[in-house]
Amino acid sequence: MTDQKALEERLEKLDSAVASGRMRRLKPMLASMHPAETALLLESIPRDKREVVWNLVPEADHGETLLHVNDEVRAELIDALEHDTLLAATEGLAIDDLADLIEDLPEQVTREMLRAMDIENRERLKVVLSYDPASAGGLMNNDTVTVRPDVSLDVVSRYLKQRASLPEDTEALFVVSRYGRYLGMLPLSKLVTLDPERDVSEIMDTDIDALAVDMPASQVAKRFQDLDLISAPVVNADGILLGRITIDDVVDVIRDEAEHSIMSLAGLDEEEDVFAPITRSARRRAVWLGANLATAFLASQVVGLFSEALSQVVALAVLMPIVASMGGIGGSQTLTLMIRGLSLGQIGFANARALLAKELAVALINGILWGVVVGGIALVWFGNFTLGLIMAAALVLNQLNAAITGVAVPLAMKKMGIDPALAGSVVLTTFTDVVGFGTFLGLGTLFLMH
Hints:
Blueprint: H1 3-20, H2 27-32, H3 35-43, H4 47-54, H5 62-68, H6 71-80, H7 83-90, H8 95-102, H9 107-116, H10 119-129, H11 136-139, E1 146-147, H12 153-163, E2 172-176, E3 182-187, H13 188-193, H14 200-203, E4 211-212, H15 217-227, E5 231-235, E6 241-246, H16 247-264, H17 278-304, H18 307-312, H19 314-344, H20 352-382, H21 385-415, H22 420-448
Parallel strand pairs: 1-2, 4-5
Antiparallel strand pairs: 2-3, 5-6
Helix pairs in contact: 3-5, 7-9, 8-10, 15-16, 17-22, 19-20, 19-21, 19-22, 20-21, 21-22
């Protein structure tokens, strides 16, 4: 069963339980679900049903579920919980997960939680909180297991047996010097399959570079993707091992970045609640609509400059939207490519010129292809050869403009520290509309007005 189908069935079961007034029938379903699935279900139901469903979620899953819901839903659920229940929800969470949750907890709960922790875990939490959440330091967990390079595998095996347990997602041990400098990794697969008399230094992997503690989370995610890592060490500027990042945290980063890219294209926040209050949603979207309205007036102003031509040649008014629309589509394709490339680190100022040349070539080919098609249609439709040529020329020119804008706008915004995904489409649409209308109507005025 696909995740989407499973969610739909659960939503139907929930609606049925609400309609019949038998909400307790949901308890077995919620108890069998993973906290991530419970979080998705909570995000998918209206606010008036959330608190009822939340009260049926097993208390043992409260902490993990809070970690998986988006920020707005998490704040809503935390407000509805008693302090004792919240405190219980934090028990058993990993240090990096606590660091993600602690900023949303009430101050009193945070104080009680810290008071209940032992000194070692409190210090570990303090270290993680000292780093930017969107960096390797903010993602890491400092529950590392370290060994020295000058000991045998047999000694390491006996050491692990004395520990009796390993941190979650441990597939390798970290090899450090006596001063704590990271030297390499010892995979557990080698530990259990190779001669126990061999030294760690002989078989440890040294080809996995450690991550700098201030490395941005997006670069951390790319490193994991490129090298197929399950975990990776994090070090400070002196190479001292500070902690490790595991794949579960990186998956969250990848998902968040994907959601951010999609939602930002519409001017929305990836952490926004689908069922947020109407007034809050309207207020947020009003800002975006206002920005688009301003650009629309600019395009209208350009059209207004050619009102005399439009009044005399009706065909211009009929065909005018086609040029702007085709430019918008072509520009959006380039813009999307640029935003993806910038986020993956594939595109920068060093190779922007080569990419621009490629996009201009693509735009020229498509501009000529569709310019001939649209120009031919205009010729057949209105029986005016000059109008067909004007249509084709305007379409080619606006495709070239769209390619230039699609490459230049994201780079300029990156230089200014603005997220291209958030405002790039508005600027792009403005340029393609203004240039498209201006070019087509300008050529029409020049060659059709007598």
